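Internal ticket - ligand job 422, EPZ:
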Amino acid sequence: MDVFEITGPTSLDGTVRVNGSKNASLPIMAASILAPGNSKITNVPHLADISVCNELLTSLGCKVTRGDNGDISIDSSVVDNPVGEYEIVRKMRASICILGPLLARYRKAKVSMPGGCAIGYRPVDIHLRGLRELGTQIEIENGYIVAEAPKGLVGKEIFLGGPFGSTVLGTANVLMAATLAKGITVIESAACEPEITDLANCLRKMGAKIKGTGSPRLVIKGVRQLKPVEYSVIPDRIEAGTFMVAAAITSGKLHIENCRLDDLMAVVDLLRNIGVTVEKNSDGCVVTRTEPIRTAQITTQPYPGFPTDLQAQFMALLSLAKGNSVVIEKVFPDRFMHVAELSRMAADLRKEGSTIIVSGVNELKAAPVMASDLRASAALVLAAMAAEGTTVINRVYHIDRGYERIEQRLNPAGAKILRKSE
Ligand code: EPZ
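stdout (structure tokens):
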């Protein structure tokens, strides 16, 4: 079990390059199931979750190889075991997005229900509702979703909204299923995240007929078959946002390459409002902070609102603001595992339901802390770089799920992150 020893305070100064998007890669890799043959997905990051996805596709019968250049080839000619085993699905919830493609191509699928999650209650009822609307019979047996559509899927108008707004992977599942359904499917209240737009663009390249990409209303005209694809995934906007906070929290200067500011409008707007400079350039941006951090109110929302996957990182930043800030988590109301750990680093945080009052302190202090989930752990790395002393972060595997060798990317810019195996 690796741990990080991070010494602060440091002021970052250098260049970091953003990798391909984890959350775009996962559904796009699952989409390869839809078309028999060899698909090639490029710009996919080297992450634990991607390896689990490879393992999952292999267990279905696909032949998955990763070239030295990082390209992933998926041969889905034969998918003779349409079963998502619990042993694999429990390692990565996003495994659920094989359900739609398997149903579309094989008219049947058996996928383990995803288990509990550190960020809160995460049902898949809307996924199942959408697939039932397309004519699927679904039972839950022994912890598995057992689904079949003997007559094939049939297009329909579907409202896919839920109590917290749209669902990203729910939209991905129903969208992929609808590409091979008979007739027209309309998905109302679809997720508009850039990762869904990237999936839709990939599906279109496979021959799918999709209109309304990027809007909450998707119209899909089913086709008889799709063809394998060669596709390059978009840069990871959450990784880019995390690096932006790294520059801000260390009052440093980072040139962030391969970053699409258009995917981060709400984030850049907030950074500028709290006194951080974000200068756009040809391949990304330069982020600097020289002024004291100003306070803010953050409310997380589905895209294009402020992303929940950057809530923890910004809470760490606002813990050093001059005054009180408010963070309201509207997508995962219980997503606060980082609060207790940041408090151990002398942040002054008060929880009121799904709201955190962040009272700014002059400095954070090093302490041994525990990583709990991917984004909470990223917040601890950021706080540790600004804190006085050496912080030890345990359970670093949580960070490796979503950030490829983060220490090798930040240390050249002045961070002091030591990875140790315990
Ligand atoms: C995706 O998860 C991302 N994961 C998450 O990123 C991200 O936090 C989330 O979208 C929101 O942006 C991947 O793309 C792999 P949702 P997803 O379905 O699709 C409720 C990270 O850090 N809901 O959009 O699982 C749900 O409980 C991860 O990289 C239902 O009630 O999230 C939540 O409150 C963490 N029923 C809200 O909707 C359903 O059937 C949004 O969840 C589905 C969702």
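Auto-summary: Residues 48-60 form the longest helix (13 residues). Residues 23, 26, 94, 122-127, 162-164, 167-170, 195, 308-309, 331-332, 374-375, 402 surround EPZ (CB under 6 Å).
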